[in-house]
Design goal:
This protein has 292 residues and is an alpha/beta fold. The chain has ten helices and eight strands. It starts with a helix and ends with a helix.
């Protein structure tokens, strides 16, 4: 009888320990899930400017996402914030000063505004405690990323750009003028920006952006950052959509020819916003590149 009592005592103790381990594993799993899905969005002062940024993920590889012209964290990178692997990556995204929630100040476009943004972005990451990080830039954000990777090379691990150009072609200047008046935009295209900025600010700042690009074309022969490209040494992924109506097909070829450690991926059905239209394919490509 004592043998039976000992047997059942051991059984119940082991069973209780098993339940405790299971409960601990479940709690740990839930905590891990909570940490990877946690999103922090706040402002921080960089060079006397209050910059709005987002941070999410627990990975050892920090990646800064850089939105495009008039863009913001949530208008430009929601599918990446939601679905990139937050166990391997820590994702940071910003509203460039004058865009999104990083206002005041109002946005301005001097000849060096891309270089100004690159300096702000690098200072943001250093202030947040990241000495080495990777970059993912779209459109204007891609230009900022090119300049940042070239001039702060010791801080950059890898670079990804999509829908990005290092110069302005004559045909592109004509495209900018055609879309200067937001009344020519579809409601689907302009409604998110009007919701974010109000129509008056959006209309004025967008027209100022066109003027800023025109000034670069007139004053610098369209050269935005061509001389920076040979200085980029980090592994670089150039992504482009064949149907991009804003950035011409010649640009990814030019980037690849002038960035030594680079490769190119073309989306045959992709347009300028291919990362929003085809997020699964885009995110898989980005994740593979960043973690390889």
């Amino acid at each position: 009888m004592w043998k039976r009592i000992k047997y059942f005592s051991k059984f119940f103790i082991k069973n209780r320990e098993s339940r405790n381990i299971s409960r601990h594993m479940t709690t740990s799993t839930l905590n891990s899930v909570n940490e990877t899905t946690k999103i922090e969005e706040r402002k921080i002062k960089i060079d006397d400017v209050d910059i709005n940024y987002l941070r999410t993920g627990i990975g050892s590889h920090p990646v800064l996402l850089l939105p495009g012209a008039m863009g913001s964290i949530w208008t430009d990178f929601k599918p990446q914030i939601d679905y990139l692997d937050k166990r391997k990556l820590t994702i940071i995204c910003w509203d460039a000063p004058g865009y999104g929630k990083s206002r005041p100040p109002n946005r301005t476009f001097p000849l060096d505004f891309f270089r100004r943004d690159a300096a702000w972005a690098c200072n943001l990451m250093k202030t947040l405690g990241y000495e080495e990080f990777s970059l993912l830039g779209w459109s204007d954000g891609g230009i900022t990323a090119l300049i940042l990777a070239a001039n702060y090379s010791k801080n950059i691990r890898k670079l990804i750009v999509t829908g990005t150009n290092a110069y302005i072609a004559p045909e592109e200047l004509k495209i900018y003028e055609k879309i200067r008046n937001i009344d020519s935009w579809s409601n689907k295209m302009k409604t998110p920006f009007i919701s974010l900025y109000g129509e008056e600010y959006f209309r004025r700042i967008w027209s100022d952006w066109v003027d800023g690009m025109k000034n670069i074309y007139d004053e610098k022969d369209g050269d935005i950052c061509k001389s920076d490209l040979p200085k980029i040494k980090c592994p670089t992924l150039i992504i482009h959509g064949i149907k991009d109506a804003v950035v011409l097909r010649e640009h990814p070829d030019y980037l690849k020819a002038n960035i030594s450690n680079s490769r190119m991926e073309i989306f045959q059905a992709g347009a300028h916003n291919l990362h929003l239209r085809y997020p699964d394919e885009f995110n898989a490509l980005v994740s593979q590149f960043l973690t390889e």
